[in-house]
Amino acid sequence: MHIAVCDDNIADRKQTERLLGRQSDRIFKETGERIYIDSYGNVPAFLSYPQMYDGLFVDMVLEDPKGLEVAQLLVKAGVTSPIIMLSSSIDYKKAYEESDFRTDNIYFMNKPIRVAEITAMVDEIKKAQGDPIKTLELRGKDGTCYARGDDIVCVVKQGPELVLYMKDQSQVRIISDIYNFYDQCEIFPQICPITEKCLINVNHIVKNSMFSVTMDNDMAFKISLVYRNSIKEAREILSRQ
Fold first, then answer.
1. 56 phi and psi angles, rounded to 5 deg
2. pLDDT tens digits, 185-199
């Protein structure tokens, strides 16, 4: 198990390391495995390759980007492991609830950290190791991001580009053949074709008939005859999972 700590308070960072070290001893006695801990005091180094970690503890309060912004950068970089926000001078849970940022792999703890809480969190991280969240790398004009299955609402071919309409109402433009992109979406059975120029996510459908479909972003599309069974087939696959 690999865990990262990113904290710009040196004393707090060392204390979190010590607590995780004790958890490493516990895990080793129980399973024979070790927890490997990397510690960071600045964001650029922390973001060099965050996807390698099974759990990430964050509290950055002195300079921008601060803690919650760091969590957003982690998610954008494709981190699906638990991100644990350690509240000290910033109440991250309150800030998160008041923001538009949403992710299902964020957790909140208060400082000073209690042994029982970090024990439960390490157990949660270990549990999450066995259930990785699948993501798809999207190399767009404005950089690379990582999408989970239901992050994508629909995909429309426009000239040489594919325009991906995302759940957060953003758009990602990539240069790709729509057939190749659909092959990449094999990990997401909810994505299916409805024409030769359009893919949709069946989990974002609000209304559909045999020949048309309306998505929850208010976009509507015609369904080609050759693809009229695609939505039904995608839903059947999802129902078996």
1. -135, 120
2. 988 999 999 999 999
